[in-house]
Amino acid sequence: MQDAELPGWLPRLAVHGGPRFLQIADALQAAVANGSLKPGDRLPPQRHLAAQLDVDLTTVTRAYDEARRRHLLEGRGARGTYVAAPKVELTPILDLSMNTPPPPDGVDFDDMLQQGLSQVLMRADNELLMTYHLGGGSDADRQAGARWIEPMFGQPDAGQVVVCPGAQAAIAALMLALTKPGDVILAEPMSYPGLRAAATQFGRHIVPVQADTHGMQPELFEEACRQHKPVLVYLNPTLQNPTAVTMPARRRRELAGIAKRCNVRIVEDDPYWLLADAPPPPITTFAPEQVYYIATLSKCLTPGLRVAFVLIPDPQERERFLVALRSFALMVAPLSAALATQWILDGSAGRLLEGVRNETRLRHRMARAILAGRYGGAGDGLHAWLELPAYWNSSQLARAADSAGIAVTPAEAFATGGGAVNAIRICLGSIRDRGRLQAGLERLSDLLARRPESVSAAVV
Where is the HTH gntR-type domain (predicted)? Predict the structure, then answer.
């Protein structure tokens, strides 16, 4: 095939450039962006393009389908396929507030979903997929959970793993199982909002313990244990939400030792460990009898699965946990659990995880370049923590960002008490398209560089 035979907008397909249908779709998107293809231009028939590229018809069909999904193309029946007119965005908000994994480049998620569900339906008893499951997951689900947390713990006992409908449900169930109304739970001053929400609903009190650049300070933790007699301490030690701090191994060991001496249980919520670059061992490894370890798939794969794994060694405590969980969330949806298990055991989850890792690092490089000295990301999580210039406060900046079509989260949303620092959290995965992410970051950078009095709003 000669280069002259190719459409002008389509470069030669790369041997190691990822799935060919995605290369074609990406070339279409680039051509529309740079004006090589304009709305109303007619594309080659699929068979003709397949012959030119020396690929099978299915590859071109999938490429055109992907381009339609991106709103690049439209079919006009027998007249063929045409470049679509730009889609009008009636709500052009650029969402930097939702902490979700980015769509990985080179991973065909739709195909992975279809293949996974096909395998589940072929191998599973369909009646079991549509009935109640009360035991914290099937044997296969617990085996998959043990496989998922194997990088953290070596070869954990699958019998100690409980399958839950998400980390939030696991946190709430632990709170119900281990505490009573009025009990104190310790946490860092900036912490996961779901903890505060559950504590408020259940009548538990969150007491903040100051943190430094390495996480919760051990001497203040021990002092708080003596003063407040807490039952639990909540820690998110790896790429902490929202500050993106990863607690070093020495600090983890110190906190585990204090918890043992003071007989305080630790809830170790660790959703980002598998995304981190060479993270320290979990706190659980320093005091396994003292810690409840939570690993969710929502932050590494996709929130839609709603599957988390909780490591609880003691059988009586596992039963107490399950009783508490069933009071508000009877079980993981069996189809979701079966799909998660299928993906973990056949290696699909590992491939998706690697794609998310790669995409996350690329997006952090973009954010660091655009936000320069203001950037506070670790480079391998889903979010970054931006401390603001003195002329902005976080709530004011969040409101101004909203007026500019950007959603960010102010520090107040994470405060467990005692005030909040002057910062915002931005999330790098919730905007699917990198170009729109870049636009959002550039708009945010421009806003940060301006003083509030120079930001005017229309009055109507």
Answer: 18-86
Place of tokens 């006009």: 76
> Please, what's the largest Cα pairwise distance for the chain?
78
Quick: pLDDT tens for 332-364.
999 999 999 999 999 999 999 999 999 999 999
Q: What pLDDT score does 89 carry?
A: 54
Share above pLDDT 70 across residues of the chain, in percent, rounded to a whole number:
96
Residue 263 and residue 277 in one domain: yes
pLDDT tens-digit series, residues 254-274: 999 999 999 999 999 999 999
Number of CB atoms found within 10 A of residue 404's CB: 16
* Helix, strand and coil percent figures for the chain, each rounded to 5: 50, 15, 40
**Residues 330, 333: Cα–Cα separation, whole Å:** 9
Residue with tokens 């003083």: 451
Going by pLDDT thresholds of 50, 70 and 90, the confidence category of residue 8 is: confident
Which residues on adjacent β-strands are paired with residue 232?
185, 265
- Measured CA to CA, the distance from residue 312 to residue 342 in angstroms comes to 23
Confidence of residue 460 (pLDDT cuts 50, 70, 90): very low
Number of structural domains found in the chain: 3
Q: Which residues pair with 186 in a beta bridge?
A: 207, 233
Classify burial at 9, counting beta carbons within 10 Å of its beta carbon; exposed 0-12, middle 13-18, buried 19 or more: middle
Q: Which of 93, 5, 114, 101 is nearest to 408 (CA)?
A: 93
Model pTM?
Answer: 0.81
What are the phi and psi torsion angles at 135 (to 5°)?
A: -100, 15
Residue 231: DSSP 8-state: S
Same domain flag for 377 and 280: no
CA–CA distance, 163 with 322 (Å, rounded to integer) = 10
The span from the CA of 184 to the CA of 219, in Å, is 18
State the residue range of the domain holding 398. 94-107+349-454
Residue 186 and residue 307 share a domain: yes
Q: What is the pLDDT of residues 67-103, one digit of tens each?
A: 998 889 998 888 889 999 886 655 568 999 999 999 9
The verdict on 331 and 432 lying in the same domain is: no
Place of tokens 């096909």: 118
Collapsing DSSP to helix, strand or coil, 179 comes out as: coil
Distance CA 322, CA 337 (A): 16
CB atoms within 10 A of CB 277: 12
